[in-house]
């Protein structure tokens, strides 16, 4: 790590500790979020033709909903499921209008408040803040995660270095853990970030799981030992720190950052539409109230700007960029903003196939993989496109479990299997960096693939 990072980090430790200790979130017990989601429902709607698509877009333009999949009405297509969170006062109206238009639909979460309570279980009765008994199979608040990061840095000085790449809009430090055996030689690097979108809690859970497994299996697991000996990992457990904290204390389904807009009352920018690559084009919104709002200009969000600055500075040795999201069970790579094959398509596609095969070997969970534009949807200003354009040859975005049964409310009981299988995939990608890509040239097909 650079000397300026070390000194800046050292100077901020004491202040950060004070901030963290004084900033513990409100206790979450019965009736979380003041029972605001009682009676809310999640609909799964499937338009089967163009007439359905047009009718559905019109309906959802008149009834305010929270889009879960896809992210906005503009991305609705025939035979592709649409998951929307509907307020309790609008559920009957939406059901009636869908029935009138004969659009296929069902309710798969009947009471959202109940599912929220079930996701985190009996949190108040658990010992969650004891570092020696840190529970990796529960979701943790921002403060707990940051305290855990300090502890990892303190207890594993031979493998871990902690530093901050900057500050968020609300002034919170953007902490990163650097993992790897100390070396005088400059090693290839891998960047992994989690929690870009605040409501995707399984992301930060995975980043913590990865660090835990890397440190505990070093010198015991031959693959992990080789990876830490020959690679440098930069792990950012919570990218969108302000939004993540807001999703714990106020709005469980908040997605964006928390920056203010001077012209509109709406807050936040989609941190995965704010990168300087085909910014604010297809798949991004220019309206500040939309969940896919691209921001007033590229890198307007201090979180995006800080990470982009760090990656630019280290791009010579940065060989892989991995961003963890949810939900869909997919492994995506560039391009997101256009229907075209990347120059090193064969090598990246081979790495993706190896990763999803490794993931499938754990519990038989099937992941689709392919270019983001064709496998999921077109989106501009994404981090994987930016990373790729800035010289990082392997750029991936994972969409973790599930495919909609729980959506963003993946139960804590599924943290272990989800993280275990994802770890296999990430290890496969990282291991590939230590080998030379020898795939033969072949015509790059654009059909996404399913493993399993």
Distance linking N and C termini: 40 Å
Tally of strands: 13
Radius of gyration, Cα only, in angstroms? Answer: 21 Å
Mean of residue pLDDT values:
91
The secondary structure category is: alpha/beta
Q: Report low-confidence residues grouped into runs of 5 or more.
A: 11-29, 441-447
Helix amount, in percent?
25-40%
Query: What pattern of helices and strands is seen along the backbone?
Result: HEHEEHEHHEEEHHEHHEEHEHHEHE
What topology, given as strand order, has the largest sheet?
5-6-8-7-9-12-10-11-13
Reported for the largest beta sheet, the result is:
9 strands, mixed
Helix tally equals 13
Beta-strand percentage? 15-25%
Shape type: globular
Summed up, what is this model?
This protein has 452 residues and is α/β, with parallel strands linked by helices.
Give a verbal description of the structure.
- Residues 11-29 and 441-447 have low confidence and may be disordered.
- The chain is globular, with a radius of gyration of 21 Å.
- The protein has 452 residues and is of the alpha/beta class.
- A nine-stranded mixed sheet has the order 5-6-8-7-9-12-10-11-13, with helices on both faces.
- The chain has helices spanning 3-21, 50-62, 91-100, 112-120, 142-155, 202-217, 222-230, 241-249, 302-313, 345-363, 372-375, 383-389, 415-432; strands at 41-46, 65-69, 82-86, 104-109, 160-167, 173-179, 188-194, 231-236, 318-326, 330-333, 368-371, 394-400, 449-450.
């Amino acid at each position: 790590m650079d000397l300026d990072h070390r000194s800046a980090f050292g100077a901020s430790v004491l202040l950060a500790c004070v901030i963290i200790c004084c900033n513990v979130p409100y206790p979450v017990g019965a009736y979380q979020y003041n029972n605001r989601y009682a009676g809310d429902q999640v609909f799964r709607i499937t338009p089967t033709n163009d007439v359905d698509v047009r009718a559905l877009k019109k309906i959802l333009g008149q009834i305010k909903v929270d889009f879960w999949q896809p992210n906005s009405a503009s991305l609705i297509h025939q035979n592709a499921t649409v998951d929307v969170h509907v307020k309790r006062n609008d559920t009957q109206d939406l059901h009636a209008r869908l029935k009138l238009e004969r659009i296929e639909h069902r309710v798969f979460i009947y009471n959202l408040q109940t599912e929220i309570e079930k996701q985190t279980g009996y949190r108040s009765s658990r010992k969650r803040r004891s570092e020696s008994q840190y529970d990796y199979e529960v979701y943790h608040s921002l403060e707990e995660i940051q305290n855990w990061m300090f502890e990892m840095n303190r207890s594993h000085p031979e493998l871990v270095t902690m530093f901050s790449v900057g500050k968020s809009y609300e002034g919170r430090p953007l902490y990163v853990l650097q993992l790897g055996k100390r070396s005088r030689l400059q090693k290839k690097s891998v960047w992994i970030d989690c929690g870009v979108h605040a409501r995707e809690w399984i992301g930060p859970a995975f980043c913590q799981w990865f660090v835990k497994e890397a440190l505990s299996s070093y010198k015991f697991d031959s693959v992990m030992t080789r990876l830490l000996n020959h690679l440098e990992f930069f792990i950012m457990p919570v990218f969108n720190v302000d939004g993540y904290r807001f999703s714990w204390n106020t709005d469980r389904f908040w997605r964006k950052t928390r920056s203010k807009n001077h012209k509109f009352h709406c807050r936040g920018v989609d941190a995965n539409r704010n990168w300087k690559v085909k910014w604010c084009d297809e798949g991004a919104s220019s309206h500040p109230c939309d969940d896919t709002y691209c921001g007033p200009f590229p890198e307007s969000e201090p979180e995006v700007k800080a990470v982009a600055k760090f990656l630019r500075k280290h791009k010579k040795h940065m060989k892989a960029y991995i961003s963890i999201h949810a939900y869909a069970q997919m492994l995506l790579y560039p391009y997101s903003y256009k229907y075209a094959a990347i120059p090193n398509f064969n090598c990246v596609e081979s790495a993706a196939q190896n990763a999803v095969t490794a993931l499938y070997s754990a519990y038989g969970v099937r992941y689709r993989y392919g270019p983001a534009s064709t496998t999921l949807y077109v989106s501009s200003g994404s981090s994987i496109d930016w990373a790729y354009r800035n010289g990082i040859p392997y750029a991936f975005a994972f969409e973790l479990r599930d495919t909609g049964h729980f959506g963003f409310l993946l139960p804590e009981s599924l943290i272990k299997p989800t993280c275990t299988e994802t770890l296999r995939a990430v290890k496969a990608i990282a291991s590939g960096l230590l080998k030379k890509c020898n795939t033969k040239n072949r015509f790059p097909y654009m059909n996404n693939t399913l493993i399993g």
